[in-house]
Amino acid sequence: MTEEVLTTFAELSLCPEINRVIEEIGYETPSPIQARSIPPLLEGRDLLGQAQTGTGKTAAFALPLLSRLDLSLRSPQVLVLTPTRELALQVAEAVQTYARHLQGFHVLPVYGGQNMGQQLRQLQRGAHVVVGTPGRIQDHLRRGTLKLDRLSCVVVDEADEMLKMGFIDDVEQILEHAPEQRQTALFSATMPNEVLKVARRHLREPVEVRIKAKTSTVETISQRFWQVRGVRKLDALTRILEAEDIDAMIVFVRTKIATVELAEKLEARGFSSAALNGDMTQALREKTVERLKSGSLDIVVATDVAARGLDVQRISHVVNYDIPYDTESYVHRIGRTGRAGREGSAILFVAPRERRMLAAIEQATRQKIAPMKLPSRQDITNRRVALFKEQILDAMQSQDLEFFEDLIDGIQQEFDTEPRTVAAALTYLLQKDRPLLPDEEAFEEVLPASGGRFDGGGRSHADEGLQRYRIEVGRVHGVVPGHIVGAIANEAKISSRDIGQIKIYHDFSLVDLPADLSPAVMRHLQKVWVCGQQLQLVPDLGPGPRQERPPRRRSGGRSFDKRGGKPGRKKFSGGKRPPKKTR
Fold first, then answer.
1. Is residue 255 domain-resident?
2. Looking at the structure, do residues 36 and 93 belong to the same domain, yes or no?
3. Pick from 210, 234, 269: which residue ends a domain?
C-alpha cells in the first residue's frame, strides 16, 4: 500500500494557533521534509531525518512540537541543539514567529559569547523552548541553572556539522542528561557512521525520513543575486525591468496577497503585469497564462504553488523577489525560464539575514550564484534612448510622414528656427511624462541603518515634521509593521497616514511619528502592549550611547539587550495589554 501524500498544511493536524500563523506567513504546501516529518513528530515518535540545509527543516520540527506544548508549564519542554550561535538565533527567531499566537510562550537562545547573567535571568523567568549550542548548554547543566527534568523532546539539528566541529561528544552527554522517556529528533545533511551511532544509541525505533537533494538546474539559466540594501526592492525591480532585455518575466513572492499588491504597483509604473495565485478561479488563472503566452501580458507575479507546471517559452527572466523557504522551491522557480533550450536569467533578492539560504541554494545546486549591481541612472538612460530611437526609426520606415514634414517646415519658417531645435522640442514633449533622463533623486542610495537623513556624525533623522522614536518590540517578538501601526493608530488616535517609516530590528524597532506628540500621548504609548511587550516609546538618539529609559518591566514577552506621455507601453493589533499569565 502506498503512503498517502499530504499536500496541504491543513491535513497535518497542527493546532489552530499554528495553522493561523501558517496562513499569515503564506505557506501554501509543506516541503517534502515537512510533509514526512510533521505527522510522526505530532504522534510523539522519534525521528531520524536526512535533508540538506534549506529544505525547511526548522518548520518540520518546530510546527509539530509547538503544537504539543503545555503552555501552563514554564519549564523547558523542548531543547534544540545547534552547532553555531548564528543558527541558534535563526532557529529561535523562527520558533518565535511560529508561536506568535501561543499566549505566554517563551523561547530562549543560549550560546557562548552572550552575557551569562542575562541568560540566567531569562532562565529564571521560564522558557518553553531553549535553543542553544552544546558548550553553553553544558555550562548551564553544570551550574544547575538549566533543568531538563520536564523536557519532552530534544532536537539535534545539523548533526554532521556538530561532528565536524567536535561537538558530538557534548551532544551525547546532553542527551544522557535528558529524561529517558522523551522524544528525540536528529537531523543531518549527511549520515556519517559517527552520527548513525549516536542515533542508534539515543533514538527509539525512529521514523526515518530521507529527502534527496534536487540539484538539477538548467545550464542555460544565468543565475545572479542582488544584496538588498538601501534601495527598496520595488525600485530595484523597476530598474531591472527598465535596463534588461526582457521578453516576459515571472516574479515570485511568498504570499497570495503580495502577488496582488506587487502586480498593482508594477501596473501603476507602466508595466503590463498581473497576479497569479491559488485564490484565483481556474478560469482566471488560465486566462492569465494565455495572456502571458500571447504577449498581451509581460509580467506575472506568482506564488510557488500557482506557478507549478507553468510552461511559457517566452519567459526570459525569473525574479525571486522574496527568497524561497527551501532549495527545492528555488529549483522549481528558476525552471520556469530557459525552456526548450533557450537562454534564461534568474535573479534572487537576498537580505543580509538571508545569506544562509543563499549558501544553502549554492550548495544544493552545486552552482555559484554571482552577485549583481543594480542598473545605474546611465544604464536606464541608455536603454530608454535606445528604445526611443527604435520607435523613431520604425515610424520613419513604416509611416507616411509628408503632412508632418510640411508642418515642421512651417514651424521652422514661422519662428525662424533650426530643424534640430524643433525636433528637440518635439522630443521633449513626447517624453516628458516618462523622461529619457531619469530623475536623479530616484537613484540616490539610502544609507542602510535606519532610513531617513544622516548628519555628519552618522545619526539618523526622520523626515520633516516627523520624529524618530524607539520602541522595545522587535522581530524576536514576532512583530510586523501592521501590529505597530494598528496599536499606535488606535491608542494615540493618530491616522495611519501620519505614521512614517518603521524599521524592525532583532529586539527593538524605530518608528517615525508626528514631531508634535503631546507628553500625555507619549506617556500613554510607553505603556501600550504589542506582541506581549510594552512599547516603552522614547525619542531615538541614534547610534550613540543608549539613552535613559524608564525601568524595563518584566513583560509577557522576551527581551534581549543585543543592539544590535509614454512613447508606447514599456514591454513588458490593537495595543491592548495581554491577559495576565498564571504560573
1. yes
2. yes
3. 210
Task: Indicate whether 18 and 163 sit together in one domain.
Answer: yes
Same domain for 466 and 512, yes or no, is yes
How many domains does the chain contain in total?
A: 4
Rounded-to-integer distance, Cα 337 and Cα 346, Å? 8
Is the pTM above the cut of 0.70?
no
Any idea what the CATH number is for the domain that residue 518 is in?
3.30.70.330
* Residue predicted with more confidence, 93 or 5: 93
HSE-up (13 A, CA, CB side) for residue 171: 31
Q: Is 404 found in the same domain as 271?
A: no
Whether the per-residue pLDDT at 570 is higher than 70: the answer is no
* Co-location of 354 and 486 in the same domain: no
Interatomic CA distance for residues 114 and 503, integer angstroms: 24
Q: Please tell me the distance from the alpha carbon of residue 350 to that of residue 32, in angstroms, as a whole number.
A: 24
Q: What is the dihedral of CA 453, 455, 456, 460, to 10 degrees?
A: -70
Q: What is the pLDDT of residues 347-402, one digit of tens each?
A: 999 988 788 889 888 887 888 899 998 888 888 888 888 888 988 898 889 999 99
CB atoms closer than 10 angstroms to residue 65: 24
Span 12-33, average pLDDT: 87
Query: How open is the CA angle 283-284-285, to the nearest 5 degrees?
Result: 90
Query: Using one digit for the tens of pLDDT, what is the confidence trace for 36-53?
Result: 999 999 999 999 999 877
256's CB contacts (< 8 A; 6+ apart) are: 26, 28, 277, 278, 279, 303
Classify residue 465 by its DSSP letter. Answer: T
Quote the CA–CA distance of 437 and 127 in Å, as a whole number: 57
Strands (E), 333-436: 344-350, 370-371
Domain containing 250 — which CATH number? 3.40.50.300
Strands 129-132 and 78-81: parallel
Distance CA 224, CA 372 (A): 6
Expressed as residue numbers, the domain containing 536 is 447-564+573-583
Amino acid code (one letter) for 522: M
Domain contains 531: yes
Residue linked to cell 530590528? 505
Q: Which of 123-127, 324-328, 458-462 has the lowest mean pLDDT?
A: 458-462
Radius of gyration of the chain (CA): 28
Distance CA(194)–CA(208), nearest Å, equals: 17
Rounded CA gap, 18 and 103, in Å?
A: 12
Q: How many beta carbons lie within 10 A of that of residue 234, not counting itself?
A: 14
- Cα separation, 536 vs 237, in Å, equals 37
Residue that is written with C-alpha cell 529527502 in the block: 211
- Check whether residue 104 and residue 185 sit in a common domain: yes
Sheet holding 509-514, edge to edge: 502-504, 509-514, 466-471, 538-539
What is the grid cell recorded at 420?
Answer: 534640430
Note whether residue 402 is domain-resident: yes
What is the spatial distance between Cα 476 and Cα 107, in angstroms, rounded to a whole number? 9
Is 183 contained in some domain?
yes
Phi, psi of 366 (to 5 degrees): 55, 35
Work out the number of other CB atoms within 10 angstroms of the CB of residue 85.
17
